[in-house]
Amino acid sequence: MNILISNDDGIYANGIKALCEALSSSYDVYLIAPNQERSAAGHSITLNSPLRVEEVDPLYGAKRSWAVSGTPGDCVKIGVNAVLSNEEQPDIIISGINHGPNLGHDIIYSGTVSCAIEGAMMNIPSIAVSLNSYKPELEDFTFAATFIKSLIPKLKDFKFPEKSILNINVPGIPQDEINGIVVTEMGGRMFTDNYEKRIDPRGKTYYWMAGKLSTEKENENSDIYAIRQNKISISPLTFNLTRKDVLEDLNSVLCKDNLCNWF
Fold it and tell me: Which tens digits make up the pLDDT trace of 94-117?
C-alpha cells in the first residue's frame, strides 16, 4: 500500500515525523509537505506565484520526500498530479499529526483537514489526524501515530463515501487515561473570538488574536464533547456544502408555480 503523508505544520514538524516513522515500517510512505509552518491556511491554493517543489533526502523512513513552498492544499494537489509517478500514486492520504486539535467550527480554518479534503476531491480515501495538545516533543505524538497504524487495517472493510474524509482527534494524555474511541459529528465552537488591542512602539494600533477555550455545553455526539471525555474522536466529514433539505423550500419561494423568470 502506498500512503501519501502531508500536513500544515511543515515538513520538519514532530507530528509528521512520528506518523511517517510509525507507518513506514509497514507501508510505502511518500512525504510531501510545506517547507514552513502553514497552520490555519484553510483550503487555499497558490495561483499567482510559482510553486517550488524541492526533493530532499528521504525523511523519517519515507521512500521519497518533498518540501513545497505553498499551502497544505498545494502539497497534496501537486503531489498527486505532478510529482508522484504512476507507481507511487497513493492508496490513502493521511494529513498530520497536527500540533493541536481540529474540532468543531475550527475545522473550517484547518490546513490539516484541507490536505485530506484535497485528497477526497480526487476520490482518494483521506484522513486528517490531530493531537489535542500543544506539547511539541516527538514522544508526545507517539501514541497517536501508533493508533493510526492500528486503524488502517480496520478500514479495509470501510468504503469511504464520495466527497468525504475521516477527521480524527486524539487526546493529548497518556494512553492509559484514554477512555476509548467514539464516532462523532462536528461540534460547535472550540474557541471564542477575542482580540487584544495593542499599540506598537511607533504608536500604531494593532490587534492580536487571543481566543479562549469555549465553555459552551456541547452535544454529546460531538467531537468536542468526546475530547472533553478523553476519548478519541473519529468524524466522517463531507465537503459537499449543499443544504439539500432546503432546496425544495427555496425553490417553492423563488420559483412559485414553476415560474422562475420574475426578474
Answer: 999 999 999 999 899 999 999 999
Omega before 11 within 30 of 0, i.e. cis: no
Closest CA to 138 of 97, 110, 176: 97
User: What value, to the nearest 5°, has the Cα angle with vertex 107 and ends 31 and 224?
Assistant: 115
DSSP state of 182: E
> Distance between CA atoms of 166 and 172, rounded to whole angstroms?
19
Are 203 and 195 in contact, with CB atoms under 8 Å apart?
Answer: no
Nearest to 20 by CA among 162, 139, 146, 107: 146
Strands 232-238 and 164-171: antiparallel
Give pLDDT tens digits for 116-144. Answer: 999 999 999 999 999 999 888 999 999 99
Q: What angle (nearest 5°) sits at the alpha carbon of residue 114, between those of residues 19 and 240?
A: 130
Q: Cell numbers 512525504 label which residue? A: 31
